[in-house]
Known about the structure:
The complex is a heterotrimer of chains A (about 300), B (about 180) and C (about 425). Chain A is of the alpha/beta class and about 300 residues long.
Amino acid sequence: MGFRHKHLLGIQNLSRSDILALLDTTDSMLEISRREAKKVPALRGKTIISLFYEPSTRTRSSFELAAKRLSADISNFSQQTSSVIKGESLKDTVLNLEAMKTDAIIIRHSASGAPYFLSTFCKSHVINAGDGMHEHPTQALLDAYTIRQERGTIAEQKIVIVGDILHSRVARSNIYLLTKLGARVVLSGPPSLLPKLFTKFKTQVEYNMDRAVEGADVIMMLRIQHERQTDNLIPSIREYRELFGLTTARFHRAKSNAIIMHPGPINRGVELSTNLADCTKSVILKQVENGIAVRMAVLYLLLGGKSRDTIN
Amino acid sequence: MQEKIKAKILDTRKIKRSLQRMTTEITEKNRNLKNLVIVGIRTRGIYIGKRIAKLIKNLEGIDVPVGVLDITLYRDDFSKLEAQHMVKKTEINFSVAKKDVLLVDDVLFTGRTIRAAMDSLIDLGRPKTIQLLVLIDRGHRELPIRADYVGKFLPTSKREIVQVHLKEIDDKDEVLITEPAGIK
Amino acid sequence: MTLLIKNGRVVDPGTNTDDTRDILIDKGKIVDIKTKINTKTQKTIDATGLVVAPGFIDMHVHLREPGQEDKETIRTGSRAAAKGGFTSVACMPNTSPVNDNAGITDFIVSEARKNAVVNVFPIAAVTRGQTGEQLTDMKNLQRAGAIAFSDDGYPVANNEVMRRALEYSSLLNTLIIDHCEDKNLSGDGVMHEGFYSYTYGLNGIPCSSEEVMVSRNMVLAKYSKARVHIAHLSVKGAAELIRMAKKKNIPLTAEVTPHHLLLTDESLKTYDTNLKMNPPLRSKEDVKALIKAMKDGIVDVLATDHAPHTEDDKAVEFDRAPFGIIGLESAVPLIVDRFVHSGIISLSRFIQMISTNPARILGLVNKGKISQGADADLTILNLDKNIVIDADSFESKSKNCPFHGWELKGCPEITIVRGKIVYPFKN
Lengths: 312, 184, 427
């Protein structure tokens, strides 16, 4: 066993055993996070830069705490750029940061493929904290960990992902991970946000949400962005909520011990009714706690020990 | 790399006697056994710790709780690691604060494992005292660490390997000295 | 200067020739073609074992001058063309400033006369500034040297504007070349919309974007009876529309690029920006359909859409990289190796698509053929030479080429323009 990759760019190129190594290591990391003194010296002396080109407090602080709990030094760089504003190129920014002798760069960027691009010239370990619509591997890992924690296993579970699948990197990473571990994944959403071709990802596509959530073990709701309305991908939020919002009535079609998940931030009253967001079946806050432990596991397995003889 | 067995130092009977003797020493030295807790270092320290707890129960009728410590995240020798070191869980279901902790490991060698174990323990809480029990002390200390209870002192050369096998996971009880074969 | 080309296998689809012939050239014109010519000339080329074809014409290149000389100039682009076996190129107007007035056309013509080693024919814009709103002074531009009109880079989006442009162009008997893309459908797309765009997380350009515009052009060409040329065809559905148009004798012609015949969307897995162009690399089915269309004569022309970009421009995240790849120096070996040697098309058909037809479509009456009185523009090919594409040794200023390292058999050996050997280079 062991995790022999230099970078974490996505779930697609991870094997089953890579994923299990990450999830198993998370157990120990969770234990550390629950102690009084939430720190171990495992990554002492390592320098990590988090480079966030998209605004995010949640994922960024999760990575920050994860690094600090392993005694690494971490520094945050936020860049607000759009493709129109031409400042320093991404390549130059990263090369400049690497000149400060970094061990790892955690990158979130709006361009799919940006972390892969970095890995072609970076000496540091590259960790994808979300690239465009492509992948968000640590989110999928913490989602899987939470499911395993709550349901005991992932194999054979009926897991329904609802929302703007087309534009969601969270959906993609989850699809890859959950299918690799043997879950039955069902996708639901409006056709403009969920092309039929997504069945090629070894999932089921069901446009009728009531049918989709029948007997579900896990329901994962994705955030709907208001821009989708201006782009004519949905007529209005009101229509969306009626067809794809998770209401108590819809939730009762799932198994009686089903759990509700959401990567956050939630649009209360849109994809999730407020009482469901706060009910005991909702594991949204557990996802956040597990997020730090998962990211600790990722940092440890990438940076702990000498990095050589790695795939990638 | 094949290993060549040089000598068998302890067998089932000898291990049993060492553990019994050390148990007596523990009960002599620790007046308040009710404050004693045992923490075994993964992996074989766990089983030795459990056997000691059983012996204490037989001798004094007192239940001493046993916890499991994984010290992977406290190691100081990462740069020497060939492969990734997989972390296992630390499972200590009681508080170590203000307790007399008996750390248990199978072999004491350079002392680095014990240093890491002590750092880890202190991060979990502030013990009153820490004592160390090992089945074998093979010398070659690199840090100023010593054991309070030693099953057997075993002078070895650095090249030799001391292998401890325990019934709980290795099907038999024995301590062997081996040497990597084919080394010039 | 007098030049004699001896013993070559002369292949000229225009005159149905495929035979060993000698060619005599004088004062930039072809004077005689016979089995044996014994005239003494200033220079002789022994073309034994080589193919002598009418000079290749690339009717879709971007020379970037004026305004973007860091990517390419008329001079460097023409050298790239010569090395690639092309004797003439038609260059698109999306320069800075846009070639939408006679002054710019004039500049390009005189620059070419001074510094270009091949014939350079400017294509002028259909609308001012290529904004798609107001027609340019097409007669003026034609007089200054514009050989055709296009807003390439952009479609002529407004149907009414395209209709009026076609009516006007028929008055001048000139050609409009349309970049077929519905910008609303293509949106933020950077690659073909399909399974792979979903996988790689990139916005997709649907097939419908091209098909909608091709069908629009078909309809307008039908009513105006003006000639429309479809630039860089890429999708199966559009090929089917062109098939339909030709059956109905609508004056639609179409071109295809080598990369759209050889590469698919799957290859974008590495987010290599040297695979990013517009229209994008399409699916396996589309590529298959284009190859069939080429075989069936639905596609008239092979053109490169040579689009130079600097290394810095391309070394960015995929979304931000500009569209376009170069093609002048790789086109001929690619098509000869992958389609002629493999038997998919004949040598004659290849030459027809890369010389005879472009000459006819652009109205270059003295080019694209080997006959008495024609311009002495000739491409001499070595069909058996093995080469490896080496972008670092390209004449082009830019190196954004996805074919670097490809091993191919067949390449241009000698390029002759107006009776002079322009490649191999003397300097």
